[in-house]
Amino acid sequence: MKKVMVAMSGGVDSSVAALLLQRQGYSLCGATLSLYSNRDIGLEETKTCCALDDVEDARRVCAKLGIDHLVFNMKAQFKQGVIEPFAQGYQRGETPNPCIECNRSIKFSGVLTRAQQLEYDAIATGHYVQSEYDNAAGRWLLKKAKDPVKDQSYVLYVLTQTMLASTLFPLGGLNKQEVRQLAEEHGLVTARKSESQDICFVPDGNYAGFLTRTLGIVSEPGHFASPQGEVLGQHEGMIHYTLGQRRGLGISADRRLFVIQKDMQSNTVVLGDEALLMQRWMMVDTLNWVSIGMPQSSIRAQVKSRYRQAAQPAWLHPQEDGRLIVEFDAPQRALTPGQAAVFYADDIVLGGGTIRGNILEEKRP
RNA sequence: UGGGCUGUAGCCAAGCGGUAAGGCACCAGACUUUGACUCUGGCAUUCCGAUGGUCCGAAUCCAUCCAGCCCAA
After folding, report:
1. Contacting residues 284-313/A vs strand B (CB within 7 A)
2. CA of A220 to C1' of B70 (A)
3. What is the pTM of this model?
């Protein structure tokens, strides 16, 4: 009987993942990563918080299923691998995606390492994705979930062949309704827990406040300016803004204004019409190729430049320095440095990388 | 202290006698394992600078006052 360690976050998805694997006859244990303490996220040490509740929920589900539950302390790694890069990204004027970094350097490798130490054959997660081995190519393929509404392949483009070879995704063929129903039928306490809650280590959703209060990051106020350089008002510090943002600017005008540029040199946030956000080219680095190797010449693909967005047709142009230029068929809105670009061939994840910036039409190669 | 103009919600602004458009901002939800975007709803009943008046009825007409702006001096 194969032994599988299920990564359990304390949510409904990973709970049902465990349930399904158990019904399929695997020998299981549940594993929850302890990623941060209250002090790490600026709360009082004594206060019970959501993270603890999640661990408890995972433990209850394991008890219900009659399997062992382990908690691994990953606080130091999480701080170094996720929280610190998150802060650094914002300080550079980028808009980082901490969930991607967590998947890249903490979650999978963390559970996999422990699983191997304890002589488990594989790990499993509650992600809505599918994987399969391609005999012809000799590679594992990462594929979108059957249900496109819940597909989470975007946040897993960072997985390596080694990780894919050892990971099961029991939810890839289900939809959310089915998952909740299964949880309900089997009396799992997580059945009705709500969906995501912002960044996990920023429970109140105020990431700028987190950066300032907890990490002591200083972001100086500066000018809002029009594309022509006219001063429109005062901003509260660069970390509060991201490309394409409209709300929270506090600038009233005769039309909607969006953040179209962050000039770190002059500490200026440039506001303008949405049309100014549309670009066809962007530079991508920190690449990871999943279902194929690094292409040697330009290839066609569909590209997602943010999580909740349909993949858009584009050319991928590999560069000699190892980076990649993406050329979209049609202009895309707010290609934002720090965010992930993920490349697809229909439902297969080819790979992805980090957006470094858009490339203006006149500067394109 | 001659002449002209303007005063409608936090900002912009429609209305020109019939019982307060719209945009921006803001707030609340929805959506969401990141940040955003988007969508839905809310947002002038101390009523249209103030006070009087005309009228069945005024933000809209009249008078006076107040405030601000502009042009002359």
Report:
1. 306-309
2. 39
3. 0.91
Q: State which residues between 135 and 154 of chain A bring their CB within 7 Å of strand B.
A: 149-150, 152
The dihedral of CA A292, A294, A297, A303: what is its sign?
positive
CA dist., res. A190 & res. A95, Å (int): 31
Query: Can you tell me the distance from the alpha carbon of A145 to that of A172, in angstroms, rounded to the nearest whole number?
Result: 5
Task: Give the Cα-Cα-Cα angle A65, A61, A125 (nearest 5 degrees).
Answer: 95
**Active site (annotated) includes residue A99:** no
The SS3 of residue A63 is: helix
**Inter-residue contact A105 to A82 (CB < 8 Å):** yes
Instruction: Give chain B positions with protein CB within 7 A.
Output: 10-12, 22-27, 31-38
CA distance A219 to A196: 28
Strand B neighbours among A 26-85, CB < 7 A: none
Beta carbon of A96 within 7 Å of strand B? yes
For residues A215 and A90, what is the distance between their CA atoms, to the nearest angstrom? 12
- Residue A162 has phi, psi (to 5 degrees) of -60, -45
Comparing A24-33, A94-103, A204-213, A326-335, the range with the smallest average pLDDT is A204-213
Provide, in whole angstroms, the distance separating residue A219's CA from nucleotide B7's C1'. 40
| Percentage of chain A lying above the pLDDT 70 cut | 96
Q: A151 CB contacts (<8 Å, ≥6 apart)?
A: A128, A129, A144, A145
Please tell me whether any atom of strand B lies within 7 Å of the Cβ of A253: yes
A220-275 per-position pLDDT tens digit: 999 999 998 888 888 999 999 999 999 989 888 878 899 999 999 999 999 999 99
A333: left (phi over 0), alpha (psi -120 to 50) or beta: beta
The answer to whether A200 is a known catalytic residue is: yes
% of chain A beyond a pLDDT of 90: 76
Could you give the ipTM of this predicted complex? Answer: 0.88
Residue A198 Cβ under 7 A from any strand B atom: yes
